[in-house]
Structures are given as structure tokens and as C-alpha cells.
Amino acid sequence: MKILNKPYYGIYFGKNYYKLLKNYFLNKNFFSKKIILLDINTKKYCLHYFLSKTNLFNKYYIINLFSGEEEKNIYTCKKIWKKLIKLNADRNSIVINLGGGVITDMGGFACSVFKRGLNFINIPTTLLSMIDASIGGKTAINFFSLKNEIGLFNYSKIILIDKNYLKTLSEDEIKSGLSEIIKYGLIYDINLWNLLKIRVFSKFLYDKLLYDKLLYEKLLYEIIYKSINIKNNIIEKDYKEKGLRKILNFGHTIGHAIESYFIYNLNKRLSHGHSIAIGMICESWISYKMKIIKKTEFEEIYNVLSILYKKIKIYNSDIYKILYFMKHDKKNQNKKMKFSLIKEIGYCLYNIEVDYELIKESIKNHFIYDRK
Ligand SMILES: NC(=O)c1ccc[n+]([C@@H]2O[C@H](COP(=O)([O-])OP(=O)(O)OC[C@H]3O[C@@H](n4cnc5c(N)ncnc54)[C@H](O)[C@@H]3O)[C@@H](O)[C@H]2O)c1
Ligand SMILES: [Zn+2]
Questions:
Q1: Which of 152, 188, 218, 288 could be bridged to 298 by S-S, CB 3.0 to 4.6 A?
Q2: Residue 259 CB–ligand 1 contact under 6 Å
Q3: What does the pLDDT look like over 48-68, one tens digit per residue?
């Protein structure tokens, strides 16, 4: 049984750890209220299982939200806070964020500022939230169409990873999580990258994996575990993102802007992971054009990502809209655009200033279409 147990928070793998959670609820029976925050999908697919594992039947309250990135905003937070007030939630209450990254990001934020801090724990139910969003203490909501503009650092006390929740996820959502796993390989662990690359090229990961349950489970377990360790190693060294943690933003400067452009300009959803995959293609190209990464390595990255992720369409006349979102990126300093760029596979640099024109070119080169 594998555990990551830090003094301020613990990450636990596998359904055996529901025992620990039950004890946690029991020993801390001063928890005046147990409140489960979820969205329509996790209510439908995850709640019953969670209750059966924790024996919380009849001993909980629910805050039920709509699903999707566009819900991760201040209006939904107001809804959460009103409900918490109605439930008389106090500092002895505990909120259980049962969901993907939207629920863990927004739930973490809403709890952290409510009455100056409510206890919360994360039960991630998407691949992406298991290996990334639910861990590392970043909580946030989008504001003024800008991603994660309002937020704070605060650890979830407990994170329980149970891959049983993945069974009801769509293929698109699995792919979305896979994109952040690919990112870990590219920025930090060439072995992880090679493992994924072989699977992709042999068409293993997708075609076969999804139908070969045992293999899928085994491989998934391995890559989830590896990914969490990579993220933990990085945040242990730099929790508040003063330096090294910035490498986790590889693909995100352009990726976040594209994600926002889809939601706020096109009124469509492009999953977080898909957006980041597009961002990783553009940012690897920038790295190659700046002579930071070799052409062959850029091509390797491009090939893997373009097998897994569908090309998107961005109209030429819309490029300034994407640049608008980028100008507000939190990594910028003194109005300069700062990027995290791959130097070689498995190693990433940060705080690299990139020329405005090159950013435009990176998108134009790969994803621009003229309006007919
Ligand atoms: N805090 C961080 O460090 C961090 C890191 C990466 C991403 N994020 C954030 O995470 C968010 C993306 O997370 P996500 O991809 O999990 O999005 P999400 O929470 O929107 O989940 C994706 C979809 O899957 C559904 N869903 C969740 N669990 C399910 C299940 N078990 N079965 C069926 N459907 C299920 C959800 O209802 C939603 O429709 C973004 O807002 C991103 O900014 C945060
Ligand atoms: Zn991300």
C-alpha cells in the first residue's frame, strides 16, 4: 500500500483508505457537520459509492452544483457560501469536495475564505484532479474571464485517490488527465515520457488500453502514482511558486488562454487537458525556434501530442482575443511575457521571456484558419 503522508496533509491511494477516512470522521466527531460539495455528474456517478464506502448515509448535507469550467466563478461561490450559512456551517464543519478539478479548486477556495477557513478534504473523481488539481494546495476561481485569477494556497487535509471513480469518465476526460501526465514526463521525467511515448506509438494506450482492463488498471496505477510523486517533489521544494514550481506551468500560458477563448468567446468547452496539449505544442515550437530545444525533440513531442489530441480551429481574426488572455497571465512580470520552456525532454526552464511575435507565430503556424 502506497502512502504519501506529510505533516500538514496526506495523500492516500486506494479504497482501503476509506477506513482511515471513516476513523477521521469518527475520531474528529467534533465535526459538527459533514457537507459534500459536488456537481451533477459526481452526484450521479460518485456519491452513492462514496457514501457506501464511508458509511455516511443520513449523516451528511449536500451542496449540489452545475458542472463545467464556466461554473468556476464568484456567482457559484456565492451560492456555496449562502448554502453554508443556511446549514449553519461553522469552523467545526468539514466540507468534502467530491469531484474533478473544478470542484476541488472552487471548493478549496470557497472553504478557505468562509469564516476565515473551513476544513476541507478532496476526493478527486477525474484523472486530471487525481494527478494534479486536487494536490499541491492551489485553490482558485476564474474572474473577469481570466483563469484562476482569484485564489489562495491552502492544503486539503486529506486527499483520497480511488481510481474506481474513473470508470464512468468519458474518453475525452481520460485524455484530458493524460495531457498533464505527459507534461510531467516532458518537464521532469524522461522515463515517464518514454513509457507514454511507446504506448502511444504502438497505439497501445488508447485502442488497447481502454479495452484491456487489467493492463489499463496496472498502467494507470503506475502512472498516477508516478505523477503524484513528481508534483509532490516539485511543490515540496517550492510551495509558493517562487521558482521551480513554475515548470508545472509548461503549456499553460498558451493553453489557459485557449481554454478561456473557447469558453468566453466561442461558448464551447475544450477540456483543460486538451487546451494544455495545444499549449504544449505551441510552447515546444517556441522553444525550438529560440534554439532551446533540438528540432528532433520538438518533432517527437509534436508527433505524440498530435496523435492523441484533435487539431482545433482558431480563426485568424480571433488571435488578438487569445493574446488578451495571455497578457493577464500570472507568470508575467513587468508586462513581459514569461514562459516555462522545455530545454530537453525531462528538463524544463522557467522565467524565459518570449517575444510577442513568436507567440503569435506559434499559434498561427499550427492552428490558424482563415474565415471563409
Ligand atoms: N489547483 C491546481 O493545481 C490545478 C491543476 C490542474 C488543473 N486545475 C483546474 O482543474 C480544472 C479541470 O479539472 P477537471 O478536468 O477535473 O474538470 P471538471 O471538474 O470540470 O471535470 C470534468 C467533467 O467530468 C465530470 N466528472 C467528474 N468526475 C466524474 C466521474 N467520476 N464520472 C463521470 N463524470 C465525472 C464533471 O462533472 C465534468 O463535467 C480546471 O479548472 C483547471 O484550471 C487545477
Ligand atoms: Zn493544468
A1: 288
A2: no
A3: 999 999 988 778 999 999 999
